[in-house]
Amino acid sequence: MASVNLEMPPMDYGIRTGNQEVELNAVKGQMGSKTRGVSLTWNDLWVTVSTRKSGRKAILQGLTGYARPSELLAVMGPSGCGKSTFLDALAGRLDFSTRQSGVILINGHKQKLSYGTCAYLTQDETLLATLTVKEAVYYSAQLQLPDSMTKSEKIQIAEQTIKEMGLQDAMNTRIGGWGNKGISGGEKRRLSICMEILTRPKLLFLDEPTSGLDSAASYYVMSGISRQKEGRTIVASIHQPSAEVFNLFHSLCLLSSGRIVYFGPASAAIQFFARNGFPCPRLQNPSDHFLKTINKDFDEDVEQGSAGRKPTEEVIDLLVNSYKSSEEYHEVQNQVAEICQQVRANPQNRRGWRRVACRVMRGITLTSIIYFQGGEILEKRSHANFTTQGLVLTRRSSVNMFRDLGYYWMRFATYVAIALGLGSIYYDLGSNYRSVEERGLMVAFVVSFMTFMTVGGFPSFVEDMKVFQRENLNGHYGCCTFVIGNTLSSIPYVLLISFVPGAIAYFLSGFQNGFGHFIYFELVLFTSMMIVESLMMNVAAIVPNFLMGIVVGAGIQGLQILSGGFFQLPSELPDPIWKYPLYYMSFHKYAYQGMFKNEFEGLKFTDDQFGKNRIMSGEDILRERWQAEMAYSKWVDLAILVGTLILYRLVFLLIIKTNEKVVHARKASTSILSNRSSQIMAKSLPASPLHGLTSFDDSPTING
């Protein structure tokens, strides 16, 4: 994954380049770092998206600005002005449908945002509703913090972070969700922030942290964020803050239709609007005045009630042009140039960077180092190791499955009721000819419909995937650990919901005696349920929508049931598609045949139809009635089912791993500088290289 920057308990980390050692001292239990933070600059940033009518539409148009350490930059504007797109562009999260140009630099250098250095809080609150606040933060700390820290140190970090976000009174309260009341919306926001700042990131992006909150909750959330600004660069998009929240901002970036209307100190925005003929009325919230002035969504309604009022589009053009000719605009240009020159202005820092860069060329991994302002070089930090993360995810998932009634317990109750119904309908099957059909129907119902009902857990699968996608995107853990944790945690519950109902149906129906036959029946049922769970996880990874996912999953299972060889015997299936390949791809084929062999082999039945009383062997029935493939034993069918289960889980891993690679490829593609951007930067900055790794030729030779 990416580099990790942890500023935690009393441990000194360092990397060595030749005889040089750069030490990084962790600060235990403090949100603010005493070292210099991250300065973020962007110059002539454009983001466009393709449209059917006009070809490409500009979402962001030539934005230039900066964010400095220990300051809170607020990005404001009407709905649809490009606030979220702006944050996504800065954080490298734009999707492939967009095209980005411009220069985004960290401390004057082009570099990736690494794990532990940057955190991003989205608008959506993707939290496990069954966990308490304390459990959610504890599990997150165990996943993110390295194994070099003891468990007590991780707990101490988690508890202090909870207190700093003001959540100590809600520590033992469950988060809550649909149907379960839990913590408030503001507390959920603070909890989400709490989980992202455990690694003490120097750069924090917040997308609408006050969305859906009242003014009081918004203030408490933003004041908690403001308290964390020491040594940290915070960029937050916010829709319409109260006056108290507005006073917390250091800098303000005001957008309208993707253009900058104003960028500068938040306190000077009122004077800027007043100079241009739009003074803020007394006793009115400044943010309300700004947004009302530049919001053109309701122009027609406003113009009908305000004769002589200027169209908002003209007002916006006036403010944009006024800003570009103002002192604030030139100050922004100077600040961007100054930040970009600071590192190169210090020869010692420059030599230190090149020395490390030369070592990179000699074999050190590029992502293991990051250059920060003032000569600070951060070593790549690790998460908890693979085993620790797997165990933590397994434990967390098990707790969630146990507490979520809809995950397994509702299905368990339904399965028990159905098993009792099956047992009573097919009670004590005999050995006559009718029992042959009844045993077949019983097997078909168990394999087809009891496994089919696993789709009932799809909503819980989708919630798990949402949590995984957020945590994986923020670098908390990888895909393999998630798949392993999810698989291990689900096994005991699937075993329970297959064993108990299966035993009820098996013994009430009077299936073949013998412990081995019973165990085989349970193993096939358990494996089939695990296969369907894996199938639905695959669907959840591709179609993260409750209704569409259930429809897709049910459709796939319906095709497999139809082509499994029971509802239409194998010899009667049409060869194209249904027999080749669906019949051999359907796991129901092997579940049907395995259970048929388990049930009929070794038994004798009486053909009492038409008064014949002919004795038939189970083997003859398998060949003639069920057309079972007798060339191999029932254990081969079970082995194929196990192989199918493993294959489905590997496919699930491949899907989410591919999605992860796409995200990283997207970040890499959006970070490439366009020729236009480079030319613009060349005009505003000195001719020296923008990126420290582009100047190896003039680097001094390193001896030793």
Q: Describe the strand arrangement of the main beta sheet, using strand numbers.
A: 7-8-9-5-10-11
- Rg value: 32 Å
Mean pLDDT: 81
Provide the β-strand percentage band: 5-15%
The residue ranges in which pLDDT falls below 50 over 5 or more consecutive positions are: 1-35, 346-379, 670-704
Separate helix tally:
24
Task: Give an overview in words.
The protein has 704 residues and is α/β, with parallel strands linked by helices. 50% of the residues lie in helices and 14% in strands. It is built from 24 helices and 17 strands. The strands form six sheets. Strands 7-8-9-5-10-11 form a six-stranded mixed beta sheet, sandwiched between helices. Strand 1 (12-17) and strand 2 (20-25) form a beta hairpin. Helix 14 runs parallel beside helix 17 and helix 18 packs antiparallel against helix 21. The longest helix has 37 residues, at 634-670. It starts with 11 loop residues before the first strand and ends in a 20-residue tail after the last helix. The relative contact order is 0.11.
